[in-house]
Design a protein that fits this description.
The complex is a heterodimer of chains A (255) and B (402).
Chain A lengths: L1 H29 L19 E6 L8 H10 L10 E9 L4 E4 L17 E10 L7 H5 L5 E3 L5 E3 L9 H5 L6 E2 L6 E2 L5 H4 L6 H5 L5 E5 L6 H8 L2 E2 L11 E4 L7
Parallel strand pairs in A: 1-11
Antiparallel strand pairs in A: 1-9, 2-3, 2-4, 5-6, 7-8, 10-11
Chain B lengths: L1 H11 L3 E2 L12 H24 L7 H18 L1 H6 L8 H4 L10 H31 L2 H10 L8 H34 L12 H27 L6 H32 L4 H9 L3 H25 L4 H27 L1 H4 L6 E2 L12 H21 L15
């Protein structure tokens, strides 16, 4: 009798195992492998999911973007508060790198390195990357920093306690404490403009159209087209922030 | 605001290399250095107390109640530097009523309250209840009322009830040990989890914080025990001092090993940030890291205490050494926190340069404010020792006058 019992439980074990294996194979066939994920996240399908493209080959370092941003968004004029700034990279023949951003590039740039020593030089406009996995949103202890349904990272001025943890957490240096409002401040992608169908101030004034923004859901749209037709890279990809600021022709020296 | 701008213009001239423009305004100053320092002292003092209570190290008895009261005095102040540092201090309560679940910082208030209300206050209450009843009956006038209030009306001092006090007190200490680990390990996690900052972002950070907390807490209790006994004109218990010295030695070894491991790992893997961090350690942090934290705060105490484990010089010399070492360790751990908090903000996240840090004498972030937050716990401790004197407890051992 004992022998019978063992064999019947063994039979049921095989039955269960076969059923489980079958179900696994069937479900694998029904749900195709989804290994290709969007690095930039996807957001809700019924809303746009905004990202930004910057073509470094077009940027001439005029600094109008940084200036327009300050005027449009009540950013203090002192040279240590920027939502948007331009950096000048100069790689010298000896391999060393010189980076400058005097007054965020608003007053223009002068090349201090003699021409004979310059290997290459280029401009890199910086702004909030509006990351999908943004560390600043993650660390805010009260949830004052949040992602809008359109994928724009915003700060609720009436709610921020000014602990500065978000400033420490941002790998790109895009945040500061607004000296007047005493809350964390950052680029809003001119949320007040884009929600009314206008483009952000920095893009409005760019004389070479080096900057674009657009809906990553819109596969025929200008931003997706930009990413498709250019070799784009994000800043500090190892941070895994799912940045939505895509640079064309980003050089390896840029951090 | 104008003063702040002037300060920043001055700092602008001290920038070396390139920093992101927003990085000039250093966000966390000396008050945030004090925060992990004070919390660490609390956790360390409590763990020393639990050695006596849970692990039955009877030789530490003279420091047991002092350690508990020290932990309480410092814990009462622990949040104040944090709150006074906020840009919007009057919104601080938001962190308690609408905590953001993904934030490492959000549960600090709860961890803090758990430790204060459930662990420390309860333990001290059970520890002192019987004595408070006694003192309430002996004293007159205002003090009588104070002790009556402190007993919350539980005045039963039958042997059975006292036994229960003891049992519950023991249980709370057992819960208190992991709580102390949680309190300070968590503070380390707040820094260790900032992946954008390579100086902070290490999985060892909570463990390093924990062991350095124990080191500083033990040193603080050693210091306070010696000062209080001297002020009371009583004789120091040498066996107790030697035992504290022994534990301080063991924990220092572990703390040093962990920090050395962190540095060896950094040097060996030499990631992208390696060069800038190396420059910082050899330059801007040289005095506070190499001279104060490593040599004065760690190596000298470690070697002296290690020597004492093999050979015990005359009592007088040992007393002096313990006193001096406790101060050196306390200073060393303060600068360990300094090196973490300030050091982590001195280099640019672009790894292309350094910003500068200058602390003023006055103002919300100045030396005076920091000194105030550090002196207040000692004042609170003085009041606590006067209100709840460990040497007048029913179970206090006999002491010899000096």
């Amino acid at each position: 009798m004992g022998h019978k019992k063992v064999s019947s439980s063994r039979r049921s074990f095989f039955k269960t195992a076969a059923a489980l294996a079958g179900a696994t194979v069937a479900s694998a066939a029904l749900l195709p492998f989804n290994g290709i994920v969007y690095a930039a996240g996807t957001g809700k399908k019924d809303k746009p999911w905004y990202g930004i493209g910057i073509d470094l080959e077009k940027c001439i370092g005029c600094g109008r973007c940084a200036n327009a941003c300050k005027s449009e968004n009540d950013v203090p004029h002192e040279p240590f508060y920027f939502r948007n700034w331009v950096e000048q990279y100069t790689v010298k023949n000896d391999g060393s790198v010189k980076v400058e951003s005097p007054n965020g590039g608003i007053d223009g740039f002068k090349q201090a390195v003699p021409d004979a020593d310059v290997f290459k030089s280029f401009f890199v406009p910086k702004m909030c990357n509006h990351c999908s996995n943004s560390p600043c949103v993650q660390v805010c202890p009260v949830g004052a920093t949040f992602v809008s349904p359109e994928g724009v990272v915003l700060v609720d001025n009436n709610y921020c306690i000014g602990c500065r943890y978000c400033i420490q957490a941002c790998p790109y240096g895009c945040r500061y404490i607004h000296p007047e409002h005493q809350v964390a401040d950052k680029c809003t992608l001119c949320y007040h403009r884009i929600t009314k169908g206008m483009s952000p101030a920095c893009m409005e004034v760019c004389p070479t159209q080096a900057r674009i923004y657009g809906d990553l859901h819109d596969k025929e749209g200008p931003l997706v087209n930009f990413i498709k037709t250019h070799t784009c890279q994000v800043l500090k990809p190892d941070m895994n922030t799912s940045s939505k600021l895509f640079y064309n022709a980003l050089s390896m020296e840029v951090r | 605001m104008i003063e702040h701008f002037q300060h920043l213009y001055e700092m602008q001239s001290k920038v070396e290399g390139f920093i992101y423009p927003n990085e000039l305004d250093l966000q966390w100053g000396v008050l945030i250095v004090l925060y992990p320092y004070i919390t660490g002292l609390v956790a360390g003092a409590f763990i020393l107390a639990s050695l006596e209570r849970v692990f039955n190290v009877k030789v530490l008895k003279p420091t047991y109640h002092i350690a508990l009261l020290t932990a309480l005095a410092f814990l009462l102040v622990a949040t104040l530097p944090l709150v006074s540092h906020l840009a919007q201090p009057f919104r601080a309560y938001e962190i308690m009523i609408t905590p953001h679940s993904t934030s490492a910082m959000a549960i600090f208030g709860f961890v803090y309250l758990w430790y204060l209300m459930v662990v420390l206050l309860l333990e001290i209450w059970f520890e002192y209840r019987q004595d408070m009843v006694k003192w309430g009956n002996e004293k007159k006038g205002f003090m009588k009322v104070i002790y009556k209030i402190l007993t919350v009306g539980v005045t039963d001092t039958s042997p059975k009830t006292n036994l229960w006090d003891d049992k519950i007190g023991y249980f709370i200490t057992v819960v208190g040990i992991p709580s102390a680990f949680l309190l300070h390990g968590y503070v380390g996690f707040i820094f260790g989890s900032v992946k954008a900052n390579p100086w902070w972002s290490t999985v060892l950070m909570p463990v390093i914080f924990l062991f350095s907390a124990m080191v500083s807490g033990i040193a603080l209790v050693l210091f306070i025990y010696m000062v209080v006994t001297k002020l009371r004109k009583k004789k120091l218990d040498m066996d107790c001092l030697d035992a504290i010295g022994k534990y301080l030695f063991y924990i220092l070894i572990m703390d040093f090993t962990l920090e050395a491991l962190d540095q060896v790992h950094r040097i060996y893997v030499a990631e992208e940030s390696f060069e800038i961090l190396q420059l910082m350690m050899a330059g801007k942090l040289y005095i506070t890291l190499i001279v104060i934290q490593l040599i004065i705060g760690t190596m000298i105490p470690l070697l002296t205490l290690g020597f004492f484990q093999f050979y015990k010089p005359a009592e007088k010399f040992r007393k002096f050494a313990y006193f001096a070492l406790s101060i050196m360790v306390l200073v060393g751990i303060f600068f360990m926190r300094w090196n973490v908090v300030i050091g982590g903000q001195l280099f640019s996240k672009s790894f292309y340069g350094f910003t500068a840090f200058k602390i003023g004498l006055i103002g919300g972030e100045g030396y005076l404010m920091a000194a105030l937050w550090f002196v207040i716990p000692f004042c609170i401790l003085a009041v606590l020792l006067w209100l709840l004197p460990p040497w007048k407890k029913h179970d206090a051992g006999a002491e010899v006058s000096a």
